[in-house]
Amino acid sequence: MGCLVLLMAMIGPRIALVFVWLTTGFIDRAYDGFVVPALGFVLLPWTTLV
């Protein structure tokens, strides 16, 4: 059960980031290229999302 909670805590912000990227233009307006959002998706999804 604990592993499931940990998995959801790690996957949740990434799913939210993809959802925001597909439905709004916020990610495109915030970042010029593709490298910084891709690194943020892998390394710091909460920071990229905020």
Question: How would you describe this structure to a colleague?
Answer:
The radius of gyration is 12 Å and the shape is elongated. The chain has one domain (2-49). Helices cover 80% and strands 0% of the residues. It has 50 residues and is mainly alpha-helical. The model has no long low-confidence stretch (mean pLDDT 90). The protein has helices at 2-23, 26-30, 35-42, 45-49. The longest helix has 22 residues, at 2-23.
Estimated radius of gyration: 12 Å
Q: Kindly name the structural category.
A: mainly alpha
| Shape verdict | elongated
Helix content: over 70%
Average pLDDT confidence is 90
Tally of DSSP β-strands: 0
Biggest beta sheet attributes: none
Task: Report the portion of residues in β strands.
Answer: under 5%
Oligomer: single chain
Total of domains: 1
Distance between the termini: 28 Å
> N-to-C SSE series?
HHHH
Question: In summary, what is this structure?
Answer:
The protein has one domain. The chain is built from 4 helices and no strands. It has 50 residues and is mainly alpha-helical.
Structural descriptors:
50 residues
Which secondary structure elements does this structure contain, and how are they paired or packed?
Elements: H1 2-23, H2 26-30, H3 35-42, H4 45-49
